[in-house]
């Protein structure tokens, strides 16, 4: 079922496409929003064509003020999917060529080990001022240790249920993740101990409304509002002495995932694994759809830990012996 009321001449085809995609297992949330924008665009411009014409598409493809290349790409991609779907059911449409995928020059913020210790200390020293029954302060020391120690996404952590967290066997099950896949995430004994401490205090809450969820607010409800955690994180960064630059440069909560990934790759490389051989392992652990999503950690690892590059170069030099030249 769609979250929007489509009413343009293409409304039925849009809703049918969304239903088909979700039947195939795709969440199709961002695309649904883009198609709703397109639906409104068609209405505002009084388009009544039964097919999607070049005029409709070319005006839609025009870059908007202050729009990033990535946003424009996603707008065009969603419309091309709709046009292709309509062609498949027998309605002739104009299908433009996809623009090039915009190259990202984004460099994530990598927390140092000293900064992580400062973050943990700031979490442990948080004090709640006033009566805020919906506060999530109780989960923060455990949540941020979990994000750093496992690299899971903030949404994956907040959606954990008690049945997903196996502290005796030291693993968690991540269900319905970003790519609609489930995966098992091993955890360390120290993280299990931290989780047990949290559960001990959580069980003392007077009210537990959403009993099945692992992370609960003081009111006993599921901690589902990520923006609330983000506000606390800004305070934690301030108390930890880590400047927040903003403007998409962070530091962000999601950078804990990047930090985990980089340190995991560094550890595997120092223990003798080849960086590129480590990529499939890390990609599976992180729940990446392909190793291409993991590949940038290799480049980042070489920049931040140049000694690893020299180590690899030394090993490579030993593969082939130096030629010995005789008198022949």
UniProtKB/TrEMBL annotation:
It holds the Pfam family Phage_integrase. Keywords: DNA recombination. GO terms for biological process: DNA integration; DNA recombination. Gene3D superfamilies: Intergrase catalytic core. One of its GO terms (molecular function) is DNA binding. Signal peptide: none annotated. It comes from the Bacteria. Residues 106-313 form the Tyr recombinase domain. This is Tyrosine-type recombinase/integrase. The lineage of its organism: Bacteria, Pseudomonadati, Bacteroidota, Bacteroidia, Bacteroidales.
